[in-house]
Amino acid sequence: MSVVFVPKRLRGTATINQETIQRLLEENDQLIRCIAEYQQKGRAVECVQYQQILHRNIVYLATIADASPDIPMEAVNPNGGAAPSATPANKVMES
Predict the structure, then answer these.
(1) Helix (H) or strand (E) run with residue 47 in it
(2) Which of 1, 17, 73, 93 is least surrounded by Cβ atoms within 10 Å, i.e. has the fewest?
(3) Does an H or E element contain 22, and which?
(4) pLDDT in tens, 73-84
(5) Within 13 Å and on the Cβ side, how many CA atoms surround 24?
(6) 25 with 2: CB under 8 angstroms?
(7) In this predicted model, what pLDDT tens digit does every residue of 16-45 receive, in sequence order?
(8) Which residues of 79-95 are buried (b: 16+ CB within 10 A; e: fewer)?
């Protein structure tokens, strides 16, 4: 089950830390791989289920990002260079 599913009694009490965000990002990576695999196999029902979870995770991460104070990119990318670009969807499908 996705880590964003928190019981109602605990909602609003969870602390958001780097570990939680990293787990969500890793889970999203796995979800994307599963979606691509099921698309190749023509299993649309499974794709939709995983896409819904992925969407929920992305909305949750976006909400966290919007609520966070602005931080300079140097803090995010300690090497000082540009942040790595996202992998194009067609590259994910090829792997």
Answers:
(1) helix 44-67
(2) 1
(3) helix 18-41
(4) 555 555 554 444
(5) 20
(6) no
(7) 789 989 999 999 999 999 999 999 999 998
(8) eeeeeeeeeeeeeeeee
